[in-house]
């Protein structure tokens, strides 16, 4: 509350006289900015109830915080925290007075263990929580005047509310969110890997800008497999050397030098040397002279950052993320020389990828011509992952583990529906699969990653320049394990055991309230928002995606402290190890399209029960500026069977 108020209180446009106080008119502007609407008459009445000396001087920063805190208390008709407080700990204390505080013992027994279903917590942990909570600055209103000398023994209702909305009480299990180095020594085939498609593009697939900055954007968003479409460019007139370029071939997208991307990735690795391997998915359209330059640039620029596999390393299981830490790994075509029918000439199926056919400028035959040069030996020996065409799973499974497949989203759906789809999961236990959006998605929209993930596909590539629902699902998946970009797949996808089946269960969610919800894109100006929450469970059943959605009512003119606290929404979870719940906050607009505010995507396998906060993220998957404190309060119920078996 204090920090939220500070951002607006200190704004020079509100305090013209530099007095460090605000009057009633300026207070109205602050309320509008934080999305809390009050009629002028109501605000004047509330303001004039203040002490006369305060009214004359104006509100200081601390007094403004207290005013907002009290306003929040007085205007909530049925505050969920009050109901939770009294339901858990009782309305009255032993002396007959209304409950003002709760002991550490009661908090542990009645709340953490019974309600929140937390197991690995002890009384000393609670005392540390209490000591921390009681150090927080909370506006001094009537309901929170009590200060305790034994701060580790009791908390009051306001500090209980602070705990409910804290990161420590987040619905995303902090144990799953933390990085676990002990799980990084498995074969690469046993991980989901955060992956990007056409990473260089800033917008659509036909006429947008290509930018080196998009690689940095993707890497800092957690991506660890980036794509480069490399083509023959010009020849340097001074040096006489070919200049390989990156762009979406045969379109009007702009072109950038291949070497600039390599330079940028080296800069990233120099600042993040402990990063887990960055995979370059090379879609190589270059002639041999340009490929030779590519190989030299990779070696000269990256140096020791470039992983060059030995012949011995190609035998047996794939290396682990830990063994490749701080390195760049190449995916492309390994055998040098002409391409045979088993080699994948491009990163995927030409008939699908080129189905948009770039306004008719190219045909499948042209593509074959563009890659008929073969592979330069210098580049081939640097490459670990070798893309091959798919014939059937029996053949694919017998191939060396460094051989891999790439499939478009339509092929993913088709293969997943086939009777032998279990063989795909078996293949993905030892080999890699990369999937990518259909070429028909000229707007750079994304497909849902759920079906590909449920079949064990490691690199489910998405358009990172488009912050739509599928990309937000991806953000939720890779929030796990410290955001390092590598998530160990569930045992149902890594263990060869026909008795291991996806676990199903039932999930119940009640959206109680929100806090500090900003305006769309974090804007300062504009009318107060009318927020509602859309809850969507993205799941998989029998090779098909299953999506179930509910929407709350919208709250008029209140993003500061909206209350829903009405319906419970029930979801039947089919594959709990893969399913993800997305909670997205939208601003209702009866005159035009509703505006996205923020969201949070939580894998069911990472979800905690009880009354939980939901930290919300903006469209760039960050919590900064206006989104620092954006959150929801929800009630979560899950069957114990599912929690024990995931």
Topology:
Layout: H1 2-9, H2 24-33, H3 40-48, H4 52-57, H5 61-75, H6 80-89, E1 101-103, H7 104-115, H8 123-133, E2 154-156, H9 157-164, H10 174-177, E3 191-196, H11 213-220, E4 225-231, E5 245-246, E6 256-257, H12 258-271, E7 278-284, H13 288-302, E8 328-332, H14 350-353, H15 364-370, H16 377-380, E9 383-387, H17 393-398, E10 403-408, H18 409-417, H19 421-427, E11 432-436, H20 450-454, E12 459-462, H21 469-477, E13 486-488, H22 491-494, E14 505-515, E15 531-541, E16 544-551, E17 568-573, E18 580-587, E19 595-603, E20 610-615, E21 631-638, H23 640-645
Parallel strand pairs: 3-12, 4-7, 7-8, 8-9, 9-10, 10-11, 11-12
Antiparallel strand pairs: 1-2, 3-13, 4-5, 5-6, 14-17, 14-21, 15-16, 15-18, 18-19, 20-21
In short:
This protein has 646 residues and is of the alpha/beta class. It contains 23 helices and 21 strands.
Helix content percent band: 25-40%
What structural class is derived from the secondary structure elements? alpha/beta
- Main-sheet strand order equals 6-5-4-7-8-9-10-11-12-3-13
Distance between the termini: 37 Å
Main β sheet profile: 11 strands, mixed
Q: Which regions have little confidence, pLDDT < 50, spanning 5+ residues?
A: 12-16, 142-147, 345-371, 642-646
Number of helices: 23
What oligomerization state is this entry in? single chain
